[in-house]
Amino acid sequence: MESLITIVVIVSVVFLVLNLSGDPIRMMASPTASEEEVAELRAAFGFDKPLVLRYGDFLAQISRLRFGDSINTRQPALRMVLQRMPATLLLSFFSLALATILGIPLGMLAAVRRGKAADTAAVLVSMVGQAMPVFWIALLLIFVFGVMIPILPPSGYGTFAHLVLPGISIAIFLLAGIVRVTRASMLEVLQQPFVTVVRSKGLEERLVLFKHVLRNASIPVLTQLTLQMRFVIGGSVVVESVFGWPGVGQLLAQAAYGRDYPVVIAATFFIALFILAFSMILDLAYGLVDPRVRIWH
Amino acid sequence: MALIDTSSTASRKERESSKRYESPKRRESSKGQGSTKDQEPTMRRGYFASLLRRPLALVAHVVLALAVIAAVFASVYPVDPLKQNLMSSLMPPSLKVDSFPGSQAAMPAFMGTDALGRDLMARILLAIRISLAVSFLAVLIATVVGVFLGLIAGFLGGVLDSVIMRIVDALLSLPFVVLAIAVVAAIGPGLVNVALVLGLTGWVTFAKLVRGEVLRIKQYSFIEAAYATGCSGRRILFRHILPQASGIILVNATLTMGQMIISEATLSFLGLGVPPPTPTLGGILSDAQQTFFAAWWIVVFPGLVLMAIILAINIAGDFLRDYFDPAEEGAR
Description:
The complex is a heterodimer of chains A (297) and B (332). Chain A has 297 residues and is mainly α. Helices cover 77% and strands 0% of the residues of chain A. The longest helix of chain A is centred in the C-terminal third of the chain and has 39 residues, at 205-243. The mean pLDDT of chain A is 80.
């Protein structure tokens, strides 16, 4: 229910902005079009009705997943977006997995070695990583691994090798956030008395860290992952454009450039849907690590 | 709000209110004394003094000062950032004065030239100005809109509060860039438009933050006292609550500024920002893709500048947060 309202609000905001900011038909039609032609086009797209009616129609259409045809390619916007969804999903999950697999151990290391060189390095790296725009990381990676040491393809789609550079570009930014949160959360848990108890009962330090501390520290990390999904998608819009990755992000950027409203709305809708679905799944994962929030049984 | 409150919390409330009645300076000094870490019995250190104790934050301030100086005096730099000269296309960085032939001024091309022979240094200086101006304007719009909506949402509550917070939560679940792109698609690129787009999509964090602050501050007895002395709701909101929240608003504005600079660069990079020939950091990097194989400097320098500015803003923002809330220091 919450998510439904969220989607409706997002779609409504996009609709309102698109409709209140000038006449889309005027921009669509060629500059030489006559008044009759413009009026015809307006009727064809339903733009001759008042705003409130159009908004009602719009919601009715969206609820049946009818987004209309792309203004530029005349293909159904829904199909264009859905065709590109798998590429975006692949890239998103790859970079998220990469960042998590590297970020959690690095954050743990920094917390355990608090104040030592490894900690300082991790904090510095995460600060710098968050200050680097994703597209610049992408350009530098292409420059190093595509031009200087040409071992990876600088653009394209298809094989695993194509996935590596775009994946790393997004992962570096994510890594920074995950390291920061893991470190802070671990430090907090390490101060709690139960850690002293498990240690004093003679448990191996490795088990203390992985079995007790990490598990207790993982809720903020999971929350961070939910928040990060927004940055993954935001980053993929840019990264897909740089690497020519045929995903929804690239489509959105192109559609915005060409003022292709149906495609912009459809892409925004599915991006929102994906992010909400992802956070709902992660909400369930809370129960896996923390029995206190379990709702089943 | 109950005006006659003689419950067990009264004594605590009284203490709090007596603290709150003092002038802001005094109040902060008492806060400093209460902290165990801060041994000095005098007032909280001045801004500059606490800056000196944090070398990294000091460096960040210097970098920011340099960026502002670069932005303000960009047009003083004697090389025209827009003048094309194909004779000096893609010259590498050099310190020699006659490093690019046919140049307008006797200046070395410190950062080299781009594919059209334009001096990269001059272009980056101007781009810093555009970037800072757009981001500052965007932060200003976001702050005004967000603070206002957050204030009324937190103060009035009710249906208005629910509606505003619904919108905030919905917009927060979408990536900032995606939202900005969708809005740019509607109103088109351009300097003022980009600032508008970023401002009108960036207000949500302010609204959420300020609403929380208002709900917290509303609880204090000094607000109750203000009611008792007959202050109007508007006066309480703007003269009593808003000043209390100003520190956290300033911190959020600083951190948002960094995000705005990234977003502006991203939009320009995608061709949705300030249109050429006006140089932007994102636009220069976008052009750099075409001459990748021949010119590393066009990729490296604008990115370094961008990173230095954002890094400095983030560090300065963290410093400000600690400055306004010393109790949080080290807890991060």
